[in-house]
Amino acid sequence: MPARRALAAAALLAAGALLSPMPADGATTTRLGQRYAIVATLDVSSGRLDAMVELELTNRSPSAIDHVNLSVVPRALGYLAMNDPVTVDGADVATEWTTSINLRVPLDDLAPRETVTIEMPFQLEVGLSPDAFTARTSRANGVLSFGQWFPIVSIDHEVYGMGDPQITFTAESIRLDLTTTTPLGRDAVACPGLVSAPATTGTSWTCESTSVRDFSFVVNPRFRLTERDVDGIALRVYTETVGGGTTADLASEALVGLADAFGEYPWQDLVLAEVGSGGGFSMEYPRMIHLTRGKVADRYVVYHEVAHQWFYGQVGNDQQREPWLDEGFADFSARWLMGIGENQCSTRPVDSEVFAWPAGPLTGGDWTSCDGYFHAVFYRSTELLNTVRAAMGNDAFFDAMRDWVRHHRFGFTTASQLLRHLQARADVDLAPIFAAYLGDQPPPAPPTRSYRLD
Ligand SMILES: [Zn+2]
């Protein structure tokens, strides 16, 4: 027990207080400076990755914290081994798994503005992932995709088979130095922020991404690269089964159209990469999109995933508690660009949480029926947003949304903030519209949810 806390405990005992000197669940925050340097060696033929994460963590909250929560989704998939100790500033610490994916790392009272370095060695043995996870960390047809693959600052939460299982907060930088055990062609590694790659064939790639809430990459020795410049943004499309031209065209249209609708795209590049699986769902990461084989050139899917670069990549939210904040806007944006309206048959509240649909930790759930997740959270959100847009008028609605994105860029938002913002920018009362689409009770808080917003 640190001296300061021992004194506090003594004082409380002396006063006869029955209070615990620290809350049972400890003190933490998500207001943290995060800089990740990951050094990894990948054996493509076996799907084995040996990695060391060095995380420089700075407490940007006004209070001392005694632990940090890190999300490690590959543990739930059965891919993770962490045989060597985690260290904080070079000293071994006793970590604890509080859910199947949440690693609690103790910190010895990290004061405001103080920085520590956490080192975490880990190994992944990647296999074919089930259901919604095929475009995340998975291995199929000789392609290795890495999404939600390394320990990252999060809130203490559990993996779930519906929706997106990981909630993250913007890091200053995430850098990967990747070595492959056999030489590969330079275009075999698709990652955002490519810093260096072999001239033709080699074993070493470096990628660094700044102001991002996650980092993903895809490795396929048979990748072909299609490149475009879209108003100064470097677009790179990596495909195997189709040429990348159609995908690049679609992504270019989306980048231009969405910058017009919601404000500038803030990064220097956008990467789209085909994964090995045909089934499952394509997946968004900051500056990076993983496309399943059946959807590489699908107009809706490419537009939807590019829209997540605004809603998720730039403006964050809790994708388990309020998934409509990113999925609703991604669906709305894709349909807006396509010039089509919503098409839904749900009666469920748009603001349902993913837990409203029974599912296993990694599989199952009703994604597609009228009563399912897509119709309620994706398509019915679009109906709500189109109704709000019609009530406000296009100019007021998109002006308000551009201000929303600019104000919350790289931050973390809630539905109540968004609704207040839209109402403040509307000449009409939006309450009847909100009441028609949103649940009238605030969603119950899962037991381990307490976090501060940026
Ligand atoms: Zn989506």
The fraction of residues assigned to DSSP E strands is 25-35%
The helix tally amounts to: 9
Secondary-structure-derived class: alpha+beta
Total strands: the figure is 24
Portion of residues within helices: 10-25%
**Average pLDDT, all residues:** 92
Shape: globular
Low-confidence stretches: 1-24, 441-454
Radius of gyration: 22 Å
Ions and ligands: zinc ion
Instruction: Measure the end-to-end span.
Output: 29 Å
Biggest sheet, in brief? 9 strands, mixed
Q: Main attributes?
A:
single chain, 454 residues, alpha+beta, nine-stranded mixed sheet, 9 helices, binds zinc ion
Question: How does this model look, in words?
Answer:
The protein is α+β, with helices and mostly antiparallel strands and 454 residues long. 24% of the residues lie in helices and 30% in strands. The strands form five sheets. Strands 1, 2, 4, 5, 6, 9, 13, 15 and 16 form a nine-stranded mixed β-sheet that branches. A hairpin with a 4-residue loop joins strand 1 and strand 2 (48-59). The radius of gyration is 22 Å and the shape is globular. The model is unreliable at 1-24 and 441-454 (pLDDT under 50). Zinc ion binds at residues 304, 308, 327, 330.
What does this entry show, briefly?
This protein has helices at 3-14, 74-77, 245-262, 299-307, 324-338, 373-392, 394-408, 415-424, 431-437, and strands at residues 32-43, 48-59, 65-71, 80-81, 87-88, 91-92, 96-97, 102-110, 115-125, 138-140, 143-146, 152-153, 171-185, 189-190, 194-196, 201-212, 217-219, 224-230, 233-239, 269-274, 283-285, 288-291, 316-317, 412-413.
